[in-house]
Design goal:
The chain has helices at 2-37, 112-131, 145-153, 180-188, 197-218, 224-234, 241-250, 252-256, 281-291; strands at 57-64, 74-83, 88-94, 99-102, 107-110, 137-142, 156-160, 164-166, 169-171, 174-178, 235-237, 258-262, 265-269, 275-279. With 292 residues, it is of the alpha+beta class.
């Protein structure tokens, strides 16, 4: 009799766990279907990488400052390259004013105009042409989602390099925890930064990696609906649910070893009076070799 009771209890717990896993999977799959539906890039045009075999992968991250009735421009463009077999990764920030050949129009202009004129497809094609690589996956993030994310994941820890004021917020030098509008002000500031857009890129990379750590720590059944609403409203991506699971499980060593890279070069006005950033050709050649 006791044996039957214990078998019943064990069966009940197993059934409950199966239901919970199924529910989480359903919610997560629903979330990714929603995020996949918003990207203007056919999934079959993305490079095919076997994530289970830990093949190197390049993911383009596009931060967009969207406005009502206007898709906006790409405020942030980063390329994340992960190589789990060699346990290394790179997070490359591409300046918004970078002077590049915009695809598919073949016009020389600022990088952030690729998104404004040609959307995600144009941005992907432009970066692929600039770095001579194949981009395997894409995520487009509404910058406004930064401030909403702290409601779910908690305040984000940053290490500010110098004191500055952005909007109504003043950020002292040193470690501190930020949330909501102040976090958005922290990642957007560039005019008071002695490094200009490069200082802002450094803070953006810092926050992106901090969010990844917070997500690892705080994901739970309770937070799943909140995460679904946040990501569904603020992120579109070509990554499927199974892709994301494989990235988390198979690429963690590469994530832990990410090298943050800023482009070298110089900014100056062209003959038309417009300011552009001209990348250092030697560094670009070196990056191409490392990425391929």
């Amino acid at each position: 009799m006791k044996k039957k009771v214990w078998l019943t209890i064990i069966s009940l717990f197993v059934s409950i766990n199966i239901i919970i896993v199924a529910f989480v999977w359903y919610k997560a799959d629903d979330l990714f279907n929603e995020m996949n539906s918003g990207v203007d890039l056919p999934l079959q045009t993305i490079g095919e990488v076997n994530l289970k075999q830990k093949e190197p992968i390049s993911i383009l991250l596009i931060g967009v400052d969207a406005r009502p009735n206007d898709k906006g421009r790409s405020d942030t463009v980063m390329l994340m390259n992960l190589n789990p077999k060699e346990k290394k990764g790179m997070l490359i920030s591409l300046p918004r004013d970078l002077y590049v050949n915009i695809k598919p129009s073949n016009t020389m202009d600022k990088l952030n105009h690729a998104y404004a004129f040609h959307g995600v497809q144009g941005t992907v094609a432009t970066v692929e042409n600039f770095l001579d690589i194949t981009i395997d996956q894409v995520a487009v993030i509404d910058m406004d989602g930064f401030k909403k994310a702290t409601d779910i994941f908690g305040d984000i820890k940053v290490d500010n390099k110098f004191e500055f004021t952005s909007g109504k917020y003043t950020f002292p030098k040193g470690e501190q925890y930020l949330s909501g509008d102040e976090l958005l002000a922290y990642v957007r500031m560039r005019k008071e930064d002695p490094l200009g857009d490069f200082g802002r890129q450094e803070r953006q990379r810092e926050v992106v990696l901090a969010f990844k750590e917070q997500l690892d720590k705080n994901i739970s059944l309770k937070s799943l609906n909140q995460i679904k609403n946040l990501f569904g409203e603020n992120i579109v991506t070509t990554l499927s649910l199974s892709d994301s699971i494989n990235l988390i499980s198979n690429y963690n060593d590469a994530f832990k070893s990410i090298e943050e890279v800023s482009l070298q070069g110089e900014g100056k006005k062209a003959s038309d009076g417009i300011y552009y950033w001209y990348a250092d050709e030697n560094q670009i050649r070196q990056l191409k070799n490392e990425l391929n």
